[in-house]
Amino acid sequence: MARRIHELDALRGLALAGIVEFNIVQMTGFPRPEGPAGDHPGAYVWEALFIQRPFPIFSFLFGISFALFLRTAGNRTDRPRLVLLRRLLWLGVFAALHTLLQPGEVLKFYALFGIVVLLPASYLSRRWVLGLGIVLTVAAGLTFNGLFIIPGLFLLGLATARYGIPDTLDRRTRQLWIAFAGAVPAAAVLLWLQWRAGVGHIANYRILPAGTVCAFLVTVAFLLIMRTPVRRPIDTVLGPMGRMALTNYVLASVLILIADRILDLGGATGFAPIVWTGLTIGMVQAALSVVWLRRFRYGPLEWLWRCLTWWQLVPIRAEASERAGAR
Asked: How many whole angstroms separate alpha carbon 299 and alpha carbon 289?
C-alpha cells in the first residue's frame, strides 16, 4: 500500500468542510444578498470564506491524487491509464446518482475533465503540464468562469505531484514561508477589491480571482500550521474526513436535505443558521469518519469505487497495525 500523505488528507478534509457551507446555500435556495459589502458585512465575510475558496483546494488536490494513483497503478498493471479511465467513468456514475440529491453537484465535471484533460496530459512532460495549468487557471480567472478553472487546477495538481512536491513536503518549510509571504499581500489586495465590488452575483468577477489566491494562501498556511504541535489534533479530526472525501461529500448532501427540512434553511434571515449547520455537519462527519476508519481501511464509497476501478473485491477490514495507528 502506498504511503499516505497525511497533510493532504487533512487539507482535503478542511476543503470538504468549507464546500458544505456553500452547498447548503446552493441546495436550499437561500437567497444571497446583492449590493454594497458595507450594507451586507456578514454576506461579505461568508463569501470571502466559502465561495471559490474550498473548491479550488479540492480541485487542486484531485489533480495530485490523480498523479499519485497513476503512479501506484503503474506498479500493479501495464495499462495504468486504462485503470484510471475506468476509475473516472465510475466517478461519473456516482456523480449521476448524486445529482438526484444535489442537481448542482460538481463531481460530474471532475469525471469529464479528468478524462478529457488529465488523462491526455499524463503523456506530457511536467513542464508542459505546469505551463498549461497556469495558462488555463489564469484564463478562467480573467474570464470569470468558475467551472473552467477546474482543468487548470487539475493540471497544477498533476504538475505538483510530477515535481515530487507532495513526497517532499517535510523538506519545504522555507519554500512554504516564501510562498506565504507573497500570498498575504496579494490576497489582501484582492479581498479589498472584492469588498469594493460588493456581494452577490454582481461581485463574481472579483470573487473568482480573489478566491483562487486566497485558496493558495489557505493551503500554504495550513501546511505551515501542520508543522506545529497542533498538527496531531488537526490530523485526528480532519485526516479521516479527507480519507473518506467521496463518502462525506455524498453524506453531506443527505444531511443538508434533512437539516433544511427541519430548520427551513432556505428561509433563514441571515447566514448564522447556514454556518452553524455546516459546522454541525462537519463535526458529525469527523466523528463518523474516525469511528469508521478504526475498523476499515476505506470509506464505504471509497471501497466500492476501488473495487469497481480494479474490477475485483478489495479487502476493507483494517489490520491490527492500521487500527492501532488510527488511534
From this structure: 8
- Residue 199: its pLDDT value, please? 92
Q: Tell me the angle at which helices 231-243 and 245-263 cross, rounded to the nearest 10 degrees.
A: 90
Write out pLDDT tens, residues 64-112.
Answer: 999 999 999 988 998 999 999 999 999 999 999 999 999 889 999 999 9
Question: What's the DSSP call for residue 23?
Answer: H
Amino acid at 23: N
Rounded to whole angstroms, the Cα distance separating 136 from 141 reads 9
Ranges of beta strands (E only) in the chain are: none
In contact, 30 and 265? CB cutoff 8 Å: yes
Query: 292 pLDDT exceeds 50?
Result: yes
Closest CA to 6 of 175, 174, 183, 222: 222
Report d(CA 115, CA 94) in Å as an integer: 15
Q: Is 75 helix (H, G, I), strand (E, B) or coil?
A: coil
Largest CA-CA distance found in the chain, in angstroms, rounded: 60
Nearest to 127 by CA among 176, 168, 163: 163
pLDDT at 143 (0 to 100): 79
Per-residue pLDDT band for 160 (boundaries 50, 70, 90) equals very high
Helices 245-263 + 6-28 axis angle, to 10: 30
- Rg of the Cα atoms in the chain: 19
CB 68 within 8 A of CB 161: yes
Q: Which residue has the higher pLDDT, 321 or 291?
A: 291
User: Does residue 2 register a pLDDT over 60?
Assistant: no
> What does the mean pLDDT of the chain come to?
92
Residues 6 or more apart whose CB falls under 8 angstroms from that of 117 comprise 151, 154, 155
Lookup: cell for 255: 444531511
Q: Report d(CA 221, CA 11) in Å as an integer.
A: 11
Q: Could you write out the DSSP letters of every residue in 219-267?
A: HHHHHHHTTSTTHHHHHHHHHHHHHTHHHHHHHHHHHHHHHHHHH-GGG
